[in-house]
Amino acid sequence: MQGPLTQFLMKNPSVLIFLGLLSAFTMFAAIGSEAFGIGFISTSMIKTLGKTLCFCLIAIAMDLVWGYCGILSLGHFAFFGLGGYMIGMWLMYERTRLIVENSMANAALPPTPEEIQEAIGTQIFGVVGGAEIPVIWSFAHSLPIQLAFVVLVPGLLALIFGWLAFRSRVTGVYLSILTQAMTLALALYLFQNDSGLRGNNGLSGLQNIPGLDHVPQSHISLYFLLASAFALGLGFVIAKLIVENKMGNVIMGIRDNEARVRFLGYHVETYKLFIFTLTAIMAAIAGAIYYPQAGIINPAEIAPIASIYLAVWVAIGGRGRIYGAVIGAALVSMLSSLFTGGQIPNIEWGPINIVWVDWWLVLLGVSFVAVTLYAPKGIGGLFDIIKLERNK
Amino acid sequence: MNEALLEVRDISVSFDGFKAINALSFSIAEGELRAIIGPNGAGKTTFMDIVTGKTKPDAGEVIWGEKNVSLLKRQESQIARLGVGRKFQKPTVFEEQTVYENLLMALDNDRSPFAVLFYRHNENDNQRIAALAEEIGLQDHLEKRSGDLSHGQKQWLEIGMLLAQEPRLLLVDEPAAGMTLEERQKTVDLLRRAAQTRAVVVVEHDMDFVRNLDCRVTVLHEGSVLAEGSLDHVTENQDVIGVYLGR
């Protein structure tokens, strides 16, 4: 008798293939890195790769909620951003505290805790005209608590939002609009200077890990790449475990015919809420690993357009298959940084002047329309064709 | 009438002023097979919508089982778990999934998300699914995508899914629509066998099909019961003849 794990892997070879490719990729990055390897991959490239893996993870979440459960959420980047803010608070607070304590250590009189608090407050909130540390920063000194918040805060938001929306049987495009409203409202709130999260300045210096000043960025970036790869691998396995089991049958049933599932006796709303919240947490974890690599987070990151891009990635990669989401996110986000990063020379033929920074969005829009019209299965659909050819 | 499994009392419902159901009363006993006929717009589908919780009536009562539970305050999924199974007019199976997966979802196991999340395939369920597939004649198609089945096979799969739910009352909406003659006969047999262990209500247009079911017939017209009895009895009823001939 085989164990359940062996059975699962036998039935889903894509899990082993994916984990193998991911390990090979990480190994390649480590060997090529400046930290331990021969150094042909720059530290900023390592960061880009690590961030791309985080995008792949949130794309898996998007595929679960949209491709499998049929909920077109256009708000999952809000959870990604919230996850980033939660870890960013600890990174910024602790680093500022260490700097403040260091600089005060040489003072004639040892500083009182109140003085230290005030100095930290001025350092962090000076830009928004304050010196008081807001209440929501009460636990910013504690890494375990802020890590718990990474899961709890976005999870709770998703739970409450989802409960209200699904209970009222809001579905389809109306739900998509509601999720857009949610992410817009959150972004607008965070833009305010008195939101307690530094308004449009956001949180910065996140690439500097408190207490690890002696470790060079080349090393830190590689550690984060490894963490991103680990989280992505774990996310892939969890997603597969869900969709390849009875849970997958039920949520795909909800996607295809919600009313029928209800008449089978399943409480559809609870299932939607479960998937919505779970994927929000996955998105939040992806964000919490992403922003220390990006170094800065501000409210513009969770603008409604970000969540729409996420849907575009998944659509291009092929929704309803987990690896499709990964391919879409990796390909489109890498191309995006290529085109908008000035690596591709602009085209100037007399009156025609193509500046890629502007034209990239047009290109993306056209490919989204093309995929929707002519290849609804996305890039992942190519694998079906290969499979069919082989079975002939 | 105290042994009625389902009792519908004086229900009325109107949509934008149109009375789809008008003071309808109806009851069915445990293990009874019943056919409901009636012209278009007689309220047959709306009646099913009300019993299964999809539509709430403006007035009346729907009473279920020996504990006399009112179904009006229950959600669709709760009513389904109480033991009311419903087959829709159009075959609605989950086309992207296999016959096996369709039946697995319908089996009367625990419906809570956690039980479903940690569900492990087991011999007992596999045997039940195999037996059901045998019953509906799909034993050789278990691994087939149900969207690839023929129209008749989809109808049977849906009936199989209903049987898997182990309902005490089966509501079947136009099972014979679009079937060949041979498929119809198979469907009649299937429903008659199902009715040996549970109550079955069949809504149907096709008189030959109803005749083959050989059961008590209720005629609906303009949202209320026009006549009830054996098929021969109701077809001799002057009101029924009038309605069907359009007088």
Please characterize this protein's 3D structure:
The complex is a heterodimer of chains A (392) and B (247). By secondary structure, chain A is an all-alpha fold. Chain A has one domain (4-391). Chain A contains 15 helices and four strands. In chain A, β3 (347-349) and β4 (352-354) form a beta hairpin. In chain A, α4 (76-104) packs across α5 (113-125). Chain A is globular, with a radius of gyration of 23 Å. In chain A, 43% of the residues are buried. Chain B has 247 residues and is an alpha/beta fold. Chain B has a single domain, classed as 3-Layer(aba) Sandwich (Rossmann fold), CATH 3.40.50.300. Chain B is built from ten helices and ten strands. In chain B, strands 6-7-8-3-9-10 form a six-stranded mixed sheet, sandwiched between helices. In chain B, α5 (123-135) packs across α6. The longest helix of chain B has 14 residues, at 151-164. The radius of gyration of chain B is 18 Å and the shape is globular. Chain B starts with a strand and ends with a helix. Chain A binds chain B through residues 4, 242, 245-247, 249-250, 252-253, 256-257, 259-268, 270-271, 274, and chain B through 52, 54, 75-78, 80-81, 85-86, 88, 92, 94-97, 101, 104-106, 108, 111-113, 116-117, 119-120, 161, 165.
In a few lines, what is going on in this structure?
Chain A is mainly α and 392 residues long. Helices cover 70% and strands 3% of the residues of chain A.
Topology:
The complex is a heterodimer of chains A (392) and B (247).
Chain A: H1 4-11, H2 13-32, H3 43-68, H4 76-104, H5 113-125, H6 143-167, H7 172-191, E1 203-204, H8 217-243, H9 246-256, H10 258-263, H11 268-294, E2 296-297, H12 304-317, H13 322-340, E3 347-349, E4 352-354, H14 356-374, H15 381-391
Antiparallel strand pairs in A: 1-2, 3-4
Chain B: E1 4-15, E2 18-29, E3 33-37, H1 44-51, E4 59-64, E5 69-70, H2 76-82, E6 84-87, H3 99-106, H4 113-117, H5 123-135, H6 151-164, E7 169-173, H7 181-194, E8 199-203, H8 207-213, E9 216-221, E10 224-229, H9 231-236, H10 238-245
Parallel strand pairs in B: 3-8, 3-9, 6-7, 7-8
Antiparallel strand pairs in B: 1-2, 1-4, 4-5, 9-10
Helix pairs in contact in B: 3-5, 3-6, 5-6, 6-7
